[in-house]
Structure formats: structure tokens, C-alpha cells
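Human: Respectfully, please carefully check these C-alpha cells:
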Amino acid sequence: MRIPELLAPVGSMDHLKVAINAGASSVYLSGKDYGARKYAENFTLDEINEAVNMAHLHNVKVYVTVNTLIKQDELEDVINYTSQLYAIGVDAILVQDLGLVELINTHLPKLKIHASTQMTAENQLKINYIESKGIKRIVLPREMRKEEIEQLKTNMELEIFAHGALCYCYSGQCLMSSFKGGRSGNRGTCAQPCRQKYKIQGIKREDYYLSPCDLSLYNQLKEIAEMNISCIKIEGRMRSKEYLAIVISSYRKALNKLKSGKEIRSEEINLVFNRGFSEGQFSHQSKRSLRAGHIGLKIGRVIDSHKNRIAIRLDDSIKNIPEKGDGLLIVKNSNDYGFEISQNPTITTLNHFKKGKNKEIKDLNRKDRVLIVKKVWQNKKSDFNLNESDVYLTKRNKLTKKVKEIENKATSFVKSKLTLTFSIKNNFPILKGKLTLANKKEVKCEVRGNTPFEKPLKKAVSADTVKNQLSKTDNYPYEIVQINVNYDGTLFIPISKINELRRNLFKTLENEINNLYKHEIKKISLKNNININGATEANISYYTNNLNDLKNITGVERVYLEIPNDNDDLDMAFNGNPNLNYMINFLKTACEISYTKDYELIWKWPDIAHDKLIKLLNKVIGILNKMHYNIPIMANSFNGEYGPYSMNITNTETIKSLKNYKILTLSPELTKKDYEDIIANCETPDKLELLVQGSVELMKSRYLLLYGNELKKNYENYLIDRKNRKYPIHKSISDEEIIIFNDSELSLLEEINHLKNIGFCNFAIDGRYKDENHYKIIDVYKSALNGKISKKELLKYSPKNTLGNYQ
């Protein structure tokens, strides 16, 4: 059984100390820029240097997140920042942007790269491509299931999230915050719109439809250790020190117990911040959180409530019995009521309570316990009947003491092994040390005292006394495995001088450990590749999932055809495989309609395609080829000829790295200036395409929206926010991908001539899920390219438009 590395989140130097003391094998942190948690405290370069030194002293690795998308004008700055990280001696950096990977491989080839979960590598094709780029580790999407992970074949290390927040959307594929609030998750400034309440059209009640319960694979650690998983990751760089101390120490104890074949339970991880737990897609679980904030540990249910008294039937398994000063949350449907226990509660039995005796019991571990809590006048009145409500313990004062102990114990999970050799030369003491680190590297050094041994006036210092003084570790994470004292015990020296010698050696060893990881800093200059290519005639591509459109479309260069789900209702979500015959017949019909047309027909694959679906899609291609229907592919799995905007292309380095693609669509998150910077520096401008009209995909999810009785309601596929904006919801052909579209269409109609004049020539219109005449919007854009812009005509086909992030 292989015990995986335990990777902890660190948002500050104080958090780093807690993570080390709690038992982390490694930590991940961010600088002030280019990290996906921009609102965390984060680290300056000097602080990163200090953090790396401290961590390496304790045999803890440091990974720095440089996992935002990189814009064109940031390329030189980010590669020099990365160069500084390499010089400091970080163990690896986490990267989302393929262009940055290209730069690191060119300029810093020895720096280890870990692919961020925001690369959305959910299938073997993506894994293969990422590995071909020399990346050493891949952080898999939280949406991957146990059996899917087990089937992956790679020499890269696999890292999975084991605990913490779950996003509704696949990481790297969420544009909701960007388009709804102008704050991009891909740029580290997510506003968390998924934690807000929404409605589904036709269902009156608001709920947290986009807010899954938090992930906890604590009870799956044995299964994880038996898989090819190198590292488990705890999420939460913006969480408290209490959260970090309790979660990391709980997982460390559980992992250690696995070595002896034991498994342990923990209620404590429920007592620090969580929205309720599930095992997520790893165990095929899909569960919505009850509230956006902390919910705590479920301890029981209210069986009786009067004006100033609440009686709670405790679950028999509960070990944490609430006390004075602890916090309770009472939840019933969409109502909740929280308060702090201000008087010592009474614990009795259910039998006593029914008889009205309420006799205090001594055995707190017995079954059928009832907790009686008094409400005092300071507590606000609850505005709902508390009977039959679930009760959660949200705050536990006893944890504070434990957190302090972890914070102050100054130790580490794995200590370095130290051998000391003491001797005297020309009467001066010499101390040699050989330190073996956890990674098997050795550090050797020698220090010489500046005070000589002398003949004793009264009493000599014995060899045992010397050995005793040298055996102290001074809170250094060294385990002294051997002390050799080559001294006959007949001379004298002040004990303080032996202690000083020991401290000097320890400090010298610490400096040598630091130097072991350092590199010479390298200043990197990037050449500007000015675009001197002549203008290419502008053309239009059109996205559709409607066969009738194929009959009517004219005057476009390409049609990107997506196969619609033959049952788009949300209550049929995740029912299994798409219908093979349906897919083949749809594409066969499309090819026959398009045979005499003047556009190129391209099959757009779903942006999210796990290996089971990839296998089916390839089967479709094979059958069509045998029938002599050849159709090119648009896919983000690095196996297509055309790249969708889900590939998150934001700079020319990424474009250069994707050599096999004919056309690449730039990210719709970019601004006007970003587009100008890219086209000015792109060697292959005719390879670039811009989405100029269409509803942008804001979220792609493997999680359900509706559960249980909600499925029986008469709903429509629209998500509605509190400003009454309606976001269309559809499913891709995968039957395992729900897509939420923007309520307004991105429209760059009035900017298209500027974009054409600066060198762009490929413009795309997304007409999926539109009415039967929407394809006529093509003529509006053809006219615009000829200098005649008509907003009035545009509004006939797209009444609600936005410039998105363009401005």
C-alpha cells in the first residue's frame, strides 16, 4: 500500500507553520500575482523564500500556484517571476496556461511543472498531450470518478482533491463570475456566483442549485492508497488556521493508521468550516448544500421546543456533546436558527425526558441521549417551529486548545536523520554533522569552536556530559540517530561553549539545506513577434445543432455542427450512454445535406468528454469512415483540427504550442486590448478565430440541478437569478454534461470592422439552441464586413446583447 503525499493549502506564514506542525507532506501557496486565489493574503517573493527555507528544513515540499491564464502583455513578466521562483528553490509550480508551459520548457527546463486542475484534463487524450509537454504531475478534475482514475495510463504523478469546497462547474471552464460580475475565476478573482440562491423556471422556491456540498474523501483513504494516486490535496487557502490544523492533522492520523491496517473516524473535520460533506463524483455522489456558509456536525434532531427550552435527541454515534459556549444551528427546510449555548445544558435519557424527570446522566456515551438546552433572552426568537428540525454543532470551544497545541508544538511529519561526531584538535572542539533528509539527500558540515579545552582547576567535563549537551535538538526537526564522542573526559570547557558549538552546527546545516535547493537567477527577455502578414479576406463560421440550418446556410466558410441531446430535459440527466445509431444517423444526414454546399462541415465534440464518451465518439468516426463520410473534428482534447474557445487561449505562446490545429478560437473573456496585443504578435493570424455573436457557455457541470420531488414539477430549462436574468440550461450529447449559457448574447457587431482592420479574418456566430430563422443573422454580419452595420437588423434575431469583457 502506497501512502499518498498529503498536500496542504497555505495562505500566510502563520498558516505554513500550522500546516507543517499538523503533518503536511507538502504545501501549496501563491505569490501576489498569477494565483487562482487573488483575494487570499498570499506571499511576497521574500516571504516565498522564507517559506521555502522553513518548509525544506522540515522536509516539506513547496508548490507555488502560477495557475491563472496569462495575457499577451504579461508573458515576459510571468516567465521572469517564474525564474525567480526557480532560483528560490520551489519544488514545482502549478500551471493552467499552456503558453506558460511552453515558455518554462524553453527557458527553465529543469523547473518541475504540475498541471493545474484548471487544465480540465478529464480524459486520456488530454493526459497524453499534457505528459508530452514534460509535465511531471497532473491535478485531476474533482469530477473524475474512482474507476475513471484507475483506468488512466500515464507516467505523470496523479493528484486528486480529497477535502474542501466543490465548484458546480469544472475548474477552468467557468465563465459565470466573469460574465455576470466582471471577475474571472481563470484570473484568480472569482466572485463565487455559485454560492448564491437561484430559481429554476417553474419552481417557485429559491435554492442553492449551483452549490454542492463540500468534498470529503476521509472515509475513502484506504481505497485511494490502493490506487495509483501520488498526492491528495486539501482545498482551502482562504480558510482559517483552525480549519487547516484540524483537517490536516485528522488526515495525517488517518493516513498513518493505514500503515498498520487500521481505519479511524473523525467528527472534528465536521466542526471546522464545511457546507455539509459528500464524496463527490469520486463515489458517484451528487448533493446540494443546505446553505452557503458553515453548517457543522449534525448531532441530532429537535424533539420538543418551548419558549426557553429545546430538547434534542442526540444521534447515538455522536462523541462531541455540546457544552456551554459551543454553537448550534437548527435547520428545517430552507429555515435556520443559530445561537451560542449560554448555560450548561442538561443531558438525560429519552426515557427520563418522556416521563418529565430530566435526570442528569453520568455515562455520556450511552444510547438514547437527550440534550436539553436553555435559550436566554439575548437570543433572537426563531421565526419557525423548531420541532422536527435537524441540529448541527457549528462551534466547539474544545477545538481551540487543540489548535493552539498544533500551532505551538514546532515539529514536522518526517525528521531528518543526524549523525554527530565530536573531537578535539589542538585543544579546540570540532563538531561534524551528517544530515540525511527525507529525500535521501545528504548534507555534511563541520564547525570549530573558538574556545580551547584546558586542564581543569577543579572538575573535568566528562564525555557523557558532552554527549548529553549534543543530544539536544533546540526545536530543529532533526532526529539524532548517533553521537560519536572522541574525547577522554580529562579536560575542561564551559558547558555554554559546547551548546554554542551545537547551535552553530545546526544553523550551518540549516543554511546548507537552503543552498541545496537554490539556483542562479536568470533574466529572460522575450522577442516581440510583430505580425507583418498581409490581410486575409474575412470569413464567417456558424455554430448550429439544427439540421434544418444546414439546408439554409449560405456564405459561410465553416459550419460547426454539434449533435443535440435527443432528450434535453434535466430530469433525464446522467441516464447513461448516448444513442450510437442516433449519432451516426444525425451526422450521416448532415453530411448528405452539406455535400453540395460551399461550406466545410465540422463536427463539434462536447467540451467535456470522459473516456467512456471518447470511445463512443471514435466508434462513430470509424463507422462513418467505412461509409465514406469523412468529417473533421472540433475538440479541445488536442485531437481535433479546430479548437473551441473552451481551450482558454489568451496569448501567442499557447497558439504556437498547438501546432496541429488549423483554427483556434480565442477566449471570449479577453478585452479589446488583449485581442489587439495577440494579433500584433501572432505569426499565424489566419489561424485565429473570434466569437463575435452568440450565447457564451458560462458553466459546464457533471452535477445534477434537480433532485427528488423537484423532478415532478413543471419546470423549464432556465436558471433565474435575483435580478430576474434567465440563463438557458442544456445538456450536451454526453448526457453527463449540463451547460448553463449566458442570458445575453455576446455581440461584437459594431467592433467587427476594427477587428478585421487589425488583422483578424475568422469570425464565428453561435446559433445553437436558437429559433428557426436565427441563421439569417449571418447576413447581418456579412453586411457589417462590407461596411454596413445595422443594429436594427441584429435585434430581429438577437434582442438582448452584451459586449461582455470586450470593454
Summary: The mean pLDDT is 93.
